[in-house]
Amino acid sequence: MNRNLIIGMLMGTALLCSACHSSHYGVTSVAVSRTQISDRYDAVQDQGALALIVPYKTQLEGTMNSVVGQSALAMDKNRPEDLLGNLIADVLRESAVRVLPQPADVGLMNIGGIRNVLAEGDITVGNVFEILPFENALCVIRIKGSQLRKLFGQIAGRGGEAISGARIVMSKGELISAEVGGQPIDDNRVYTLATIDYLAEGNDGMTALREVESKDFPEGSVLRDVFMDYVKQCTARGEKVTSKVEGRVTVQ
């Protein structure tokens, strides 16, 4: 999703909300049809509508272009392991302190939920929206070791996902071994896992997360905002955002 599309969506929402507050009319029916959008529409512009949009567009562009931090290197997203996925999984695991007295044992993010790469240099608000455009929110899960092992097997079957605090070895889509905190998984122990609500519901093939000990959804913890806060905290400490590929997911 590019920045212009994000701005357009936000502008449209703002205008619709404004219209709703100023009108006494209500929707009585909805009809759906398809219209092919092409550059032929660019030749016909409503000057009144453009004038109405300008203040919103200027304000939103200013917000989206605001620099919130610096990236020490370019970060891509790939399976089985990548820089950006590792970073976001780390941020999720650390953000579990909103619920727990310490970071979670494991952090988990799906590669499909990361929608863009992070370039070296300035990090803007718009960059964060492009990387994490969805309203996914933090979920802190308590999960038995046997179920966590099942989850890692499902991740192996998908060719890998972004994890933190754990290491898995896989071959031909099958889980060979798994560790949490440098130790083999104890099937009877209850572990903590920080992920997003979308995955906590068992989506993206991670059905093991449907059967867990408990789930906690801390209020006001949209992943995009959590990640933005992390970038700002790095900036406040005079640090650049960075990451490493360190063998969290290994293919034999």
Please name the defining characteristics of this protein.
five-stranded mixed β-sheet; 20% strand; four-stranded mixed β-sheet; alpha+beta; 35% helix; 7 helices; 252 residues
Question: What does this protein look like?
Answer:
The chain is an alpha+beta fold and 252 residues long. The chain contains seven helices and eleven strands. Strands 5-2-9-4-10 form a five-stranded mixed beta sheet. A four-stranded mixed beta sheet has the order 8-7-6-11, with helices on one face. Helix 1 crosses helix 2 and helix 3 packs across helix 7.
Strand order of the largest sheet: 5-2-9-4-10
Radius of gyration, whole Å: 21 Å
Category from helices, strands and their pairing: alpha+beta
Distance between the termini: 34 Å
Binned strand content:
15-25%
Any idea what the shape is?
A: globular
Quick structural gist:
The protein is of the alpha+beta class and 252 residues long. It has helices spanning 3-22, 47-64, 83-95, 125-131, 145-157, 197-200, 223-236, and strands at residues 67-71, 106-109, 121-124, 138-144, 162-164, 166-171, 174-180, 183-184, 190-196, 214-216, 249-251.
Topology:
Layout: H1 3-22, H2 47-64, E1 67-71, H3 83-95, E2 106-109, E3 121-124, H4 125-131, E4 138-144, H5 145-157, E5 162-164, E6 166-171, E7 174-180, E8 183-184, E9 190-196, H6 197-200, E10 214-216, H7 223-236, E11 249-251
Parallel strand pairs: 2-9, 6-11
Antiparallel strand pairs: 1-3, 2-5, 4-9, 4-10, 6-7, 7-8
Helix pairs in contact: 1-2, 3-7
